[in-house]
Structure to design on (306 residues):
């Protein structure tokens, strides 16, 4: 029996991973620091604070998983880039990994970020792009990847590291770009945006979850970019939202200043994800945006709106 422990199980990505893991035949054990969630049947739930090594050990002793999918981290919008909470999560993640190893675990996948790369390069390849994070968040993730990778080699643990680019979808924090624009136009309010010429790599959250589950099941090791491989300008994304909601006039391009130091291009080389992991996306940008818009309509009680 494949037995997986999933951290961050009630988070943006985690909640999408749970049903996929069940479909793949895993016995799923889920950890959350929130109130226990019993909505997904056949999930074994544990409430624990992973920043407390004793609570981590208690869960690991009970579960003794063969697989570990570590999604939990500090992700408060606007704060996570510079917060010293990142340092606590590096330590907590290493404690988790060591406890997993000591209880017989043999396959782990952890979550990385495109913020590990030198953004001056724009096109990010696992093999050739320099790793020069410019934020504490990116540096913390990169440090964890280096240490966990070296430890995995030393003890013979099968491990992979999924570097996420830009994701969106239901349950995303309302301050983020896609939901903030959707909410504005659904409420009939203007959505002020920057010039929108920045090019990014967006992937729908259910596809992100599917990529991680497929990576977990594979034997691929080391860093793997988790992205669409299809760069698109922010202007195209927000204009498409306006058109799909039927309110293109509410999209106000150029009314906000772009963030200082915002790179003009940031996209993923997804060859390894396609060829080695053998994963392909289910949702294109329009399909993913449609799913997201419909979810926000339902969330706002606008189900009857065409």
């Amino acid at each position: 029996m494949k037995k997986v422990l999933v951290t961050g199980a009630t988070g943006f990505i985690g909640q999408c991973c749970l049903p996929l893991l069940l479909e793949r035949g895993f016995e799923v054990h889920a950890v959350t620091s929130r109130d226990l969630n019993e909505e997904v049947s056949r999930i074994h739930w544990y409430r624990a604070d992973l920043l407390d090594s004793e609570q981590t050990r208690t869960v690991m002793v009970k579960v003794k998983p063969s697989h570990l999918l570590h999604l939990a981290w500090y992700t408060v919008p606007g704060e996570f880039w510079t917060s010293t909470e990142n340092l606590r999560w590096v330590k907590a993640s290493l404690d988790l990994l060591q406890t997993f190893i000591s209880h017989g675990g043999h396959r782990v996948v952890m979550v990385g970020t495109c913020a590990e790369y030198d953004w001056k390069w724009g096109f990010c390849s696992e093999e050739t792009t320099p790793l020069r994070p410019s934020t504490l968040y990116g540096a913390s993730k990169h440090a964890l990847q280096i240490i966990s990778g070296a430890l995995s080699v030393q003890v013979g643990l099968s491990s992979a590291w999924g570097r996420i680019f830009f994701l969106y979808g239901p349950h995303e924090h309302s301050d983020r770009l896609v939901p903030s624009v959707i909410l504005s136009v659904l409420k009939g309010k203007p959505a002020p945006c920057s010039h929108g010429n920045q090019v990014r790599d967006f992937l729908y959250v259910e596809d992100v979850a599917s990529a991680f589950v497929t990576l977990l099941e594979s034997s691929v090791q080391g860093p793997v970019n988790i992205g669409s491989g299809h760069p698109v300008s922010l202007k195209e994304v927000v204009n498409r939202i306006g058109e799909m909601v039927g309110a293109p006039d509410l999209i106000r391009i150029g009314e906000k200043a772009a963030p200082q130091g915002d790179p003009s291009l940031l996209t993923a080389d997804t060859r390894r994800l396609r060829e080695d992991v053998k994963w392909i996306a289910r949702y294109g940008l329009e399909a993913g945006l449609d799913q997201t818009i419909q979810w926000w309509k339902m969330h706002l009680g606008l189900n009857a709106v065409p």
Remarks:
- The first helix runs from residue 14 to 23.
- The longest strand covers residues 107-113.
- Residues 49 and 292 are 30 Å apart (CA to CA).
